[in-house]
Amino acid sequence: VATTTGKRNGVSSRAKVLTIDTMNPTVKKVEYAVRGPIVQRAVELERELSQGVKKPFAEVIKANIGDAHAMGQQPITFFRQVLALCSYPELLNDSTFPEDAKSRARRILQSCGGNSLGSYSASQGIESVRQDVARYIERRDGGVPCAPDNIYLTTGASDGIVTMLKLLVCGEGATRTGVMISIPQYPLYSAALAELGAVQVNYYLNEEKCWSLDISELQRSVDEARTHCNPRALCIINPGNPTGQVQSRQCIEDVIRFAAKERLFLMADEVYQDNVYADGCQFHSFKKVLFEMGPEYSSTVELASFHSTSKCYMGECGFRGGYMEIINMDNEVKAQLTKLVSVRLCPPVPGQALMDLVVNPPQPGEPSYDNFIKERTATLSVLAEKAKLTEQVLNTVEGIRCNPVQGAMYSFPRISIPEKAVKEANGQQPDMFYCMRLLEETGICLVPGSGFGQKDGTYHFRMTILPPTDKLKILLDKVKEFHHKFTQKYS
């Protein structure tokens, strides 16, 4: 019963039903570094600059989140043409749009209720889109079969990942589900596990070997976790976020064997599959490797893999398009998964349409093909140049060590922070203190490594390589200059 706590203007004021003490306690444990206090302060600084407040910099350069278009990356023309036609079908009579864009738009609209993007779709996603996704996966994986019924279209990859975690989490106390995640990790995982009340089981990537994954570390992690929880799932991000590594085929095989031996459900976050830059590196999907290892593994290991329209050369974060494919899932559980996604009705239909274009782009001989290939290649080659530039410049700074950015969109350099600065941080994480000083003094917005997890006694920051090349050069020069001054001040 709500209690009366006094009168205000003659009206009884009652205690709030929902307070910080009565709210869901798991929500309070959720943290999400890429939109944390640093970013909030960056937004305030932008506001202050626009109001004419004098700062030691003229603009805030944000490199905190993998939001390609916000950083100036241009959309792919064909994708936007088709989406425009789907959104406003009267444009189908406009001669400025190429015929292949029009035929694609008609096909998508015919799959929508009432021929409108504004209608709900099936909960699992539009059937023709799921068929196209299945064909794309078969092509990508060299002919390994893919059933459209195993494809679930999602609201970005995040939605699929959280949905799978919901299915996996159960038990109490020592039987509570443990989920193995890499450290450094993408904060979606720690946030979702906190909200679901699952146990986060850390395994550390090897920074000395370019953030590679050691099976002995997975073994240490799972053995330790079994003393206090029930590890049931292993999450892999490849190419890596925030670390930018690309896993070798051998490593993926080893991980699959490990998952089979330890009876773990595999979750493969593969949203950066087109973002591979380093010589000698290549993307291998977990599904392809699983099936190449033969029926001993391909018929038993449970796998969910995820892709998205938000990364790669598309960068279409705002449309929230994505899919997951499930392999070897128990049929009764699959029925429960379908029920769970139906509660949310359906993923955004414009995002589904965009996903369809990503998996079924213009083909050779079609009017839009040459321009599509030109734009796609240009976007990926600029990202490759920026990956190299970031690594090279950061490694010229004494006290910063940056592994090669083999793939994805980020670098996660190690920074040395003098003992005096660690003391002055005064309870704040030292790399948070460093990043906040960097922001206040230079207008550069990066995320401290502590938001992603790191080995004790090491400090990092994560930055995206997405800003335009001229801005990225300014950013790197400012980081270089700041680190030098910061080190001198606290030495």
UniProtKB/TrEMBL annotation:
Role according to the record: Catalyzes the reversible transamination between alanine and 2-oxoglutarate to form pyruvate and glutamate.
Listed name of the protein: alanine transaminase
Listed InterPro entries: ALAT1/2-like (IPR045088), Aminotransferase_I/II_large (IPR004839), PyrdxlP-dep_Trfase (IPR015424), PyrdxlP-dep_Trfase_major (IPR015421), PyrdxlP-dep_Trfase_small (IPR015422)
PANTHER family: ALANINE AMINOTRANSFERASE (PTHR11751), ALANINE AMINOTRANSFERASE 1 (PTHR11751:SF308)
One of the record's GO molecular function terms: L-alanine:2-oxoglutarate aminotransferase activity
Alphabetical keyword list: Aminotransferase, Pyridoxal phosphate, Transferase
Annotated Aminotransferase class I/classII large domain residues: 97-478
Catalytic activity: L-alanine + 2-oxoglutarate = pyruvate + L-glutamate
GO CC field: cytoplasm
GO terms classed as biological process: L-alanine catabolic process
